[in-house]
Specification:
Layout (H helix, E strand, L loop, with lengths): L6 H9 L5 H12 L4 H8 L3 H22 L1 H18 L4 H13 L11
Helix pairs in contact: 1-4, 2-4, 3-4, 5-6
Length: 116
């Protein structure tokens, strides 16, 4: 059985701009819209096996990019460091505000939120 690797959804967020529109569409339908291979095949007009093969190839591309660029790994590290920083600065309003601004600039949280 073809099993979903949910790490792919995170990688898709990081690398969607560098894969083909077709691969991006298929991955989005499969991981974000949670459609079955058969449903995707009917929607895009190719065979179920064609969908499966394309998704596997697109996943390989995403893992290739992550293996070399580590964008998703870095984003997780920044988010964890930011969360830790927010916790440590919650009793220092100026530092806490600066930490929130830093996380907002990194696209991790809205500056108006109380946490990450």
């Amino acid at each position: 059985m073809f099993e979903k690797n949910l790490a792919v959804a995170e990688l898709l967020d990081s690398y969607a701009a560098v894969i083909s529109e077709r691969h991006r569409q298929l991955l989005d339908l499969y991981y974000n819209e949670d459609l079955s291979l058969g449903e995707i095949a009917a929607e895009v007009g190719i065979s179920r096996q064609g969908v499966r093969d394309s998704i596997k190839k697109a996943e390989e591309e995403l893992f290739f990019f992550e293996e070399r660029l580590h964008l998703a790994e870095r984003a997780r590290a920044v988010e964890k460091a930011g969360t830790d920083l927010l916790e440590k600065t919650e009793h220092a309003p100026d530092l806490h505000a600066a930490a929130l601004a830093l996380l907002a600039a990194a696209g991790i949280t809205d500056e108006n939120e109380g946490g990450a």
